[in-house]
Each structure stands twice: as structure tokens, then as C-alpha cells.
Amino acid sequence: MLSYARDPERSLLEATIWSTFSPVTTTFFYTPERIMVLARKMHSIPFKSLIFRRAALLLSALVGAALVTVCTAGEPDTPSARLGTFDIEAHRGGRALRPENTLQSFANALSMGVDTLELDMGVTKDGIVVVSHERGLNPDLARGPDGHYLPPPGIPYVKLTLNEVKQYDVGQIRPGSAYAARFPDQVAIPGTRVPTLAEVFALVRRSGDRHVRLNIETKIDPNHPDESPDPQQFVTVVLTLLNREHFADRVMIQSFDWRTLQLVQKQAPAIPTVYLSEQHEDDPNVFAAKSSPWTAGFDPQKYGGSVPRAIKAAGGKIWSPDFADVDAQAIREAHQLGLPVVVWTVNRPEDMARLIDMGVDGIISDRPDLLRTAAAQKGLPLPRGYPVSP
């Protein structure tokens, strides 16, 4: 323990040094209450030297931090300040408006103005990165040359060459399907093909938008290893393309399969990794009380049941949870760990407004048009549009 009677200058300096250079230790040994006690005692100690005055100045900064902590403690619904500018992300290019994950949807999003194009990646039999949410052709989207939609379950991309993939039309959701009922406003564009990721890069360059980034997801499932490349092969193919296209500085790589994110962090540490999480729906990838094949060993159960703490331990840069899985307290915890929170997939304006008020750092939406409106109503700056044709 510190003894002010024994050596007040040394004691205060000790507290200051610990507080300044060991924030983890400070959390446990120099709590806000203890710092406040130190501050009160400081007034009774004469300022004998320059070094003491410097120590006192540092301690006064800690007092301010302690006051903030004390004042917000016990208020779980207090909004958390965003860690940066708000991120408007067009989910699959904005699938409620145009055919998902296509040049048409991305061109529409670029034209209206978004911060980020969110998209998904698969890899063909001949090693080409294509843009698709599923690990293969989706029977609700893909029509063959004969005009008929594929029967379920579709065909994995790893079993098709790029030329074979390009034979399918993905410009209209299967009429009468439950999927079509979810997006009645989507404009059908017959003749639309599955794009390659390189074609998306070319579209972005052609638009002239130097602001927009891409949030690209590795579509890989540890429970279905035969439907995609293995994690190392997938990451190698993607990183090779990014380097060849000189686009690595404009992407984030996201995944529910954290194994691929671990590989990205080792092989391309400058690329931000986005850790996707799903906890309460039909197909969760993280669990509070048991291990998961998706988490590369970074299970929340090892970190007090906390998903943000697990992601921080894994070296992630961004947490991207299902919006139904977060509350103000979870957002605040992530922010305290230095993790921005970008939630998915939010399509109702009232949910957008509520989440913005809670302090999320970004929202991924099928309706980037409505998200722009919600952000503007909250006084957030909007990205400008760059009109471009597919």
C-alpha cells in the first residue's frame, strides 16, 4: 500500500507512474475511488519539487477520468461515444433495391453515396474470386441458360469454373419465393451475371469515388469444408488478388469463420479484420458457455462470456454483431476495448435511429437509402454520391 506519511512525493509518483504506464494494472489497483482519495490527500502535501508538480498534473488528469467513470457507473443505458465517423454500409450493395452482390447493386450504392460496399466472396474451381453471399449458386437467384432456376441446393463455386458461373442469370429473385416476398421493391435486372471481385474494383475506380471502402467477407463454413477452399487457400487467393489490384488499402476483411481472420492478421496485418458474430438466431457462430468451431479458439467462455473481449484477445479491429444481439452496455464495453461496433442487418428506420442513439459506429443495411435519411436526421455527415453505370 502507499504510505503518504512515509514519503508523500514517492507515493504520489508511484501512483502516477503505475497509472500512466500500466493501464491494465490501474484498472485493479488504482480504481476511480482510490484515485479520488489520492487527489484529496494531494492538497495537504507541499509542492516541494518540479517532479512532484509534474506528478500532480498527471494525477489531475486521472481525477478527470475517474469522475467520468464514477458518474457513468450504474447507467447501463448511457450511450457510448463513437470511436470515429459513422459508417454507412450497403449490404450486398443494397439488396432491397437491386439484385444483390452485383455490379448493378454496387453501382446504385456508389451513385447514392455510401461509406462502404459490403459484399461476400467465393472462389471458383479455377481460383477466381467471385462475389456471392452463398458458397455456391443460390437456387432462389440463379437461372441457367434454359431460363429455369437451379434446383436446391445449388452448386458450390469450387465445383465450377468462372466461365460456367458466368452462364447463370442472377438478376431476379425467384418469383413467388419467400425470399422474393422479403424484398418486394427490388428492381429486377434480367441478364445480370455474378461479378468477380476484380470487376467490382474496376467499377469503384471508374466511379471516381476515392472515399468508399469495401467490407469483404470470406464465405467459408467449418462444418462444410467441401464447399469452399480451406482457410489458408482462401486467404492466399484473396490477398494475392488485393496485392495485384493494389486495393489492399481500401478493404476490410470480415468473416464469421475467425480462422480466416487470424490468417489475415498474420499475413497482411495492415488490413483491418472485422469479426462477425451471431449469438441468438438459428445458426449462431459464438456461444457464451461452450466452444465453437468458428472462433479459432477464442471462445467468449474464456473471457467471462464477453464477445468483445474474445475479439480483442483475437486481435480483431472491429466487432460486427447481429444488431439484435447488442445493447448500450455491450457497445460501451467494446468501445472501452477500442473496438468499433458495426451492426448488421438493419432495415427499419426506427431501429436505425435507436442504434445510432446507442452509439454504434456503423450500420450495414439492405436499404442504404433509408440509412442515409436516418443518419441525416441525427445530424451525421453523409458521403457524397458518385454516379456510375454498371
Explain the overall architecture.
The chain has 390 residues and is of the alpha/beta class. The protein folds into 2 domains: 65 residues, no CATH class; 291 residues, Phosphatidylinositol (PI) phosphodiesterase (TIM Barrel, Alpha-Beta Barrel), CATH 3.20.20. Helices cover 38% and strands 11% of the residues. The chain contains 14 helices and 9 strands. Strands 1, 2, 3, 4, 5, 6, 7, 8 and 9 form a 9-stranded mixed sheet that branches. Helix 10 links the parallel strand 5 and strand 6. Helix 1 crosses helix 4, helix 5 packs parallel to helix 8 and helix 13 packs across helix 14. It is globular, with a radius of gyration of 25 Å. The N terminus is likely disordered.
Report on the biggest sheet.
9 strands, mixed
Distance between the termini: 68 Å
Mean pLDDT: 86
Number of domains: 2
- What structural class should be given to the helix and strand makeup? alpha/beta
CATH topology annotation of the largest domain:
TIM Barrel
Low-confidence stretches: 1-74
Helicity level, as a percent range? 25-40%
Beta-strand fraction estimate: 5-15%
Question: What is the molecular shape?
Answer: globular
